[in-house]
Amino acid sequence: MKRLLRLLLPLLLLLGAAPLVRAQSVSPNAVLGGAPAAAPAAAPAAAAPANEPFRLNIGLEGTNKPGDVSVAIQIVVVMTLLSLAPSLVMLMTSFTRIVIVLGFVRTAIGVPTAPSNQILVGLSIFLTFFLMGPVFDRVNNEALQPYLAGALPAATALDKAGVPLKDFMLKQTRTRDLEFFLELGRFPPTPVKELPIRVVIPAFVLSELQTAFQMGFLLFLPFLVIDFLVSSVLMALGMMMMPPSVVSLPFKLLLFVLVDGWHLVVRSLIQSFQV
Predict the structure, then answer these.
(1) φ, ψ dihedrals at 55, nearest 5°
(2) How many other CB atoms sit within 10 Å of the CB of residue 40?
(3) Where does residue 172 rank: exposed (0-12), middle (13-18), buried (19+ CB within 10 A)?
């Protein structure tokens, strides 16, 4: 009897646990002990898209304006001009003459570090902007603004922008320097207004160097006289071991301050240009 109970007891336990197992396997949406479960809600049509990172698309399509260049070529031209901007400022404006003359003034006085190179270059740049103001205004009015307004294509605007700069350089260039480069390039006789820019720029730079050295020579003369006088006095006193430059430096500084040297130099530089 005991063996029979031992065999039936596990069977009864299994039979009693079967409904519980079936109840646990029912869907969570089913309603127990009531009306039949309603149909499940419809799934959303589409899941919300995940947040995508920001993207930057740069198009290089051609322009729709007739006679204009594509955007890719414009970008290349702008990057080239930015890389050549220092050379253009130094060689096609009044910067070359100004910075050379200011360097001669510093050397003639005898103070190679005062004012420093940064001050001389900065002063030369601002004087260049002051002198080239009318030329830059012409470039802005005749080329840049019409191009930005869409009235001129890029090639025409570039040609018009070069006309004021070319006129400025021709006013400062000696005739013999132009003839020199025309002869080297084997050009035929050419009117001044039709001179190519590859002839005007080197002739202008050569003329600027010559003018700057002439002004530097004239600036050296008064300070050279002071050096001669100081050397003669020291030789007469038998002070041959005393460096003349040390004794003459205060006198040169005094002379430069008394005659208001910086005003005279800047005025001479500005008046030497024909704008």
Answers:
(1) -130, 145
(2) 8
(3) middle
Count CA within 13 A, CB hemisphere, residue 71.
7
- With a CB cutoff of 8 Å and minimum separation 6, the contacts of 108 are 216, 219, 220, 223, 224, 252
User: What is the per-residue burial (b if ≥16 Cβ within 10 Å, else e) of 62-85?
Assistant: eeeeeebbeeeeeeeeeeeeeeee
Nearest to 258 by CA among 218, 222, 214, 215: 222
Q: What share of the chain is helix, strand, coil (3-state, %, to 5)?
A: 70, 0, 30
Task: Please list the pLDDT of the chain residue by residue as tens digits (275 residues).
Answer: 555 445 444 444 444 444 434 433 334 344 434 444 444 444 444 444 556 555 555 554 544 554 455 667 777 777 877 777 777 778 888 898 999 999 998 888 888 788 888 899 889 989 988 988 888 888 888 888 887 887 778 778 878 888 888 888 888 888 888 888 888 888 888 787 878 888 888 899 999 999 999 998 998 888 888 888 888 887 787 777 777 777 788 888 888 888 888 899 889 888 888 76
Distance CA 242, CA 234 (A): 8
